[in-house]
Specification:
elongated, 1 helix, 8 strands, 3-stranded antiparallel sheet, about 50% strand
């Protein structure tokens, strides 16, 4: 690859990345400015939270806010996890609660996304709390 075509390719990739980030920021799919934290992890040590965010989703024709939690399994065998979330507005009032999402198997040494959704919009959420639950103990 010549230096000129390499430079052009980098310019196109950078422009595409900036455009995608701008579009995502305008639509709120990246979670806006909401602060989030994991307030409970019943599988701590076995299941490690790598990342989490919220995004807008449509579930059954309803506008929803969905918490996406990326976890990894640090054990030598598959482990099952479930997630729930609470969403708060700018006045710290609970505006939505996402019940347990359904058990999700996390294979040994792999990353998996776990989701919890509730009616609402990301733009209304200032803060969210996540809980990871061991479905076999509760």
């Amino acid at each position: 690859m010549t230096e000129q075509s390499s430079t052009r390719r980098r310019t196109i990739l950078a422009a595409g990345t900036a455009l995608a980030a701008g579009v995502a920021g305008c639509t709120g799919v990246l979670g806006g400015g909401a602060d989030g934290e994991v307030t409970k992890n019943e599988l701590e040590g076995d299941i490690e939270v790598l990342d989490h965010e919220i995004e807008n989703a449509r579930l059954g024709g309803t506008n929803s806010v969905r918490a996406d939690v990326t976890v990894t399994n640090n054990t030598d065998e598959a482990t099952t996890v479930d997630a729930s979330a609470k969403f708060y507005d700018g006045d710290d009032v609970l505006i939505a609660r996402a019940g347990l999402s359904g058990s999700r198997s996390v294979p040994h040494d792999q990353d998996v996304e776990v989701h919890a959704s509730a009616p609402g919009r990301v733009a209304d959420v200032a803060r969210y709390e996540l809980q990871l639950i061991d479905p076999w103990t509760g």
